[in-house]
């Protein structure tokens, strides 16, 4: 675990250095598209870190943006390295050209990789009467880390609540007086191979990876308004290959999960059902699709223009009701699966049960009505927050995770590795390695 802790610390320092130099790129590696935004920071306050060393607020604007069709990515994970590398290069170079500046550091987000959530708790007695940075480090390292299995890595580890003696719900207890400090921490683990492949793909493009994040998390940061993040809400990010789920409470993510189904599955159902190429199926889904049929849809005919050379096959017509009949079952299946994950997380016990749909797949007409029947009454479609300099083409729901990455870079939340971990918490094998090094070198 210490290797990951150290690499996250190194990435955090790299991100801080890149922001102080003024330019950093964010990369959203999705199943259907790869988006790159180049950010210019105009005034990072490195001394502003009252909550973690990275919490200096930074003003930024988007100076370059590009998007390209994703290649070599399936279910949010890299499947063909060379193809993904080419797609990343294309997006980054186009964004650099628009910004007219070279970028060396990128912060990337990805979906999929089987995220799992854990709630951890720890408490310690204070050394003095006033809570210090060291006390925060000690209480975070006192959390019992579960055995999350071989081949998995910690992606996020955020303290979501502090309690000092009998007072709970503290955001930052430093400088306050008490005798016993407790914390609740939310930890997300993902399959290590997915993170390693992403890091390798970025390195092959001659770029430095200065941070990684889960798409489900950053989409929630971008699409949920402040009240929803405070009172409790779920963000459902419907992408091409996966549907990310994140639940926020008190402005912190308290649960994350993903369903390995998305908009591409609806497209492939249309392609198979109507015997048309995937590109035609995507166009039908985007411009003519829906999930709620009316009496008019039986009479509205759609021309399926094919290029097979068979005149009869190329000049077919189907009704819009038939298209909706193919799309609805798959969309229902995705929403039912999301419902299962929300129930498992205990979402119904939150004081507010707002659900926000975002991501490219959320633009299917009538989806919010169907979702409110399956998921609960309070459903709305979410667009990402407006970011300074963002082009009009990148303001739709499909760019929620890219915009969320900008906010994640500019205003990071505290993570476990923002604090110095006490030496006694280092795993024994690291100490054994140090002892061996001393023996060999002295």
From TrEMBL:
<dbReference type="Pfam" id="PF02491">
    <property type="entry name" value="SHS2_FTSA"/>
</dbReference>
<comment type="function">
    <text>Cell division protein that is involved in the assembly of the Z ring. May serve as a membrane anchor for the Z ring.</text>
</comment>
<dbReference type="InterPro" id="IPR020823">
    <property type="entry name" value="Cell_div_FtsA"/>
</dbReference>
<dbReference type="Pfam" id="PF14450">
    <property type="entry name" value="FtsA"/>
</dbReference>
<dbReference type="InterPro" id="IPR050696">
    <property type="entry name" value="FtsA/MreB"/>
</dbReference>
<keyword id="KW-1003">Cell membrane</keyword>
<dbReference type="InterPro" id="IPR003494">
    <property type="entry name" value="SHS2_FtsA"/>
</dbReference>
<protein>
    <recommendedName>
        <fullName>Cell division protein FtsA</fullName>
    </recommendedName>
</protein>
<dbReference type="GO" id="GO:0009898">
    <property type="term" value="C:cytoplasmic side of plasma membrane"/>
</dbReference>
<dbReference type="GO" id="GO:0032153">
    <property type="term" value="C:cell division site"/>
</dbReference>
<keyword id="KW-0472">Membrane</keyword>
<dbReference type="InterPro" id="IPR043129">
    <property type="entry name" value="ATPase_NBD"/>
</dbReference>
<comment type="similarity">
    <text>Belongs to the FtsA/MreB family.</text>
</comment>
<dbReference type="GO" id="GO:0043093">
    <property type="term" value="P:FtsZ-dependent cytokinesis"/>
</dbReference>
<keyword id="KW-0131">Cell cycle</keyword>
<feature type="domain" description="SHS2">
    <location>
        <begin position="24"/>
        <end position="223"/>
    </location>
</feature>
<keyword id="KW-0132">Cell division</keyword>
<comment type="subunit">
    <text>Self-interacts. Interacts with FtsZ.</text>
</comment>
């Amino acid at each position: 675990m210490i290797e990951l802790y150290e690499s996250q610390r190194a990435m955090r320092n790299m991100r801080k250095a890149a922001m102080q130099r003024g330019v950093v790129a964010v990369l959203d590696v999705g199943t259907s598209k790869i988006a790159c935004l180049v950010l210019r920071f105009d005034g990072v306050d490195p001394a502003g870190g009252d909550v973690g060393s990275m919490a200096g607020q930074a003003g930024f604007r988007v100076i370059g943006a590009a998007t390209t069709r994703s290649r070599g990515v399936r279910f949010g994970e890299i499947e063909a390295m060379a193809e993904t590398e080419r797609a990343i290069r294309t997006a980054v170079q186009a964004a650099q050209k628009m910004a007219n500046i070279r970028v060396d550091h990128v912060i990337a987000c990805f979906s999929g990789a089987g995220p799992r959530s854990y709630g951890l708790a720890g408490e310690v007695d204070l050394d003095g009467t006033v809570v210090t940075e060291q006390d925060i480090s000690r209480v975070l390292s006192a959390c019992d880390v579960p055995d999350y299995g071989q081949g998995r890595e910690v992606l996020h580890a955020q303290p979501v609540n502090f309690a000092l003696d009998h007072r709970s719900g503290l955001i930052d207890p430093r400088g306050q007086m008490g005798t016993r400090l407790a914390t609740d921490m939310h930890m997300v683990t993902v399959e290590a191979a997915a993170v390693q492949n992403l890091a390798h793909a970025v390195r092959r493009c001659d770029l430095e990876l200065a941070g990684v994040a889960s798409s489900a998390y950053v989409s929630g940061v971008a699409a949920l308004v402040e009240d929803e993040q405070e009172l409790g809400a779920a963000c459902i990010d419907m992408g091409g290959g996966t549907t990310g789920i994140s639940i926020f409470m008190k402005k912190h993510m308290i649960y994350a999960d993903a369903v390995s189904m998305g908009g591409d599955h609806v497209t492939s159902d249309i392609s198979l059902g109507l015997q048309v190429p995937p590109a035609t199926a995507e166009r039908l889904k985007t411009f003519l699709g829906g999930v709620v049929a009316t009496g008019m849809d039986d009479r509205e005919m759609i021309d399926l223009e094919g290029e097979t050379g068979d005149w009869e096959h190329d000049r077919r017509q189907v009704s819009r009701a038939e298209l909706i009949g193919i799309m609805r079952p798959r969309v229902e299946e995705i929403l039912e699966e999301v419902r299962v994950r929300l129930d498992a997380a205990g979402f119904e016990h939150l004081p507010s049960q707002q659900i926000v749909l975002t991501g490219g797949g959320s633009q299917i007409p009538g989806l919010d009505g169907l979702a409110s029947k399956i998921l609960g009454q309070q459903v709305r479609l979410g667009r990402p927050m407006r970011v300074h300099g963002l082009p009009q083409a990148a303001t739709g729901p499909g760019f929620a995770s890219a915009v969320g990455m900008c906010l994640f870079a500019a205003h990071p939340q505290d993570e476990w590795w923002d604090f110095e971990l006490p030496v006694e918490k280092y795993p024994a094998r690291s100490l054994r390695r140090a002892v061996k090094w001393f023996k060999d070198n002295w």
